[in-house]
Amino acid sequence: MAQSEQTGIIGKGITIRGNLTGGGDLVIEGRVEGQISLKNHLTIERSGHVEAEIRAEELTINGEASGNIDATSMVSISSSAKVAGDIKAIEDGAVFNGTIEMDVKLPDNI
Amino acid sequence: MANTVIGSSIVIDGEISGDEDLVIQGTVKGKISLKESLFVDSSGVVEADIETQNVEVSGKVTGNINASDKVELKSDCRVIGDIKAPRILIADGASFKGNVDMDVKER
Predict the structure, then answer these.
(1) Is A104 a domain residue?
(2) A16 with B12: CB under 8 angstroms?
(3) Number of independent structural domains in chain A
(4) Structural domain contains residue A103
(5) I want to staple B82 with a disulfide (CB 3.0 to 4.6 A). Which of A63, B16, B86, B99 is the partner?
(6) Residue A102's pLDDT band (boundaries 50, 70, 90)?
(7) C-alpha distances in angstroms, B39 versus A40, A44, A49, B92?
(8) Which candidate from A8, A13, A17 shows the least CB-CB separation from B19?
(9) SS3 call for B96
(10) Contacts of A23 in chain B (CB under 8 A)
């Protein structure tokens, strides 16, 4: 079983079209199209493919995500991820001090 | 154990399709079509038409169930809708309202 009953897993072979809302953590290894709004942590695994408006508190992307992302606390995009869309993790008007680090491998011939 | 779990706090409004087992502990409204087995746990609420190979219901299902192999209604489940499957098991204590069609060919 999953670690806690709050956790949801969308496996590799599963496709969901529509609205997905919830309070717990969610791991997506399959495909989700539509809207996701989650109170806790959303993880899109390497095999995961999400075409959706995403709202979550924390978001970890290892796979593919397209659509606007609104995370209230944190977005983590790993080197295996492909993301298309606007990310809103820092609210307008906020003061941000720090760096945005992107793991992009440049081709050798540059 | 199945790979995919819709946890108890998750609500899905739409369509779920796939070729692996699915466990529902939360709420799903819309349509479910699977090539494998569907388990609706005791906390699960499904308001959807279901098309799959096997279904095991311990929770609540409102909608028609069409299974290519087996439907199992466990005790304490609550199912409202028509069931079409070659094999159907209804446990003592299960609540069920609807038609049963086992697709028996007339001789």
Answers:
(1) no
(2) yes
(3) 1
(4) no
(5) B99
(6) low
(7) 25, 24, 24, 18
(8) A13
(9) strand
(10) 9-10
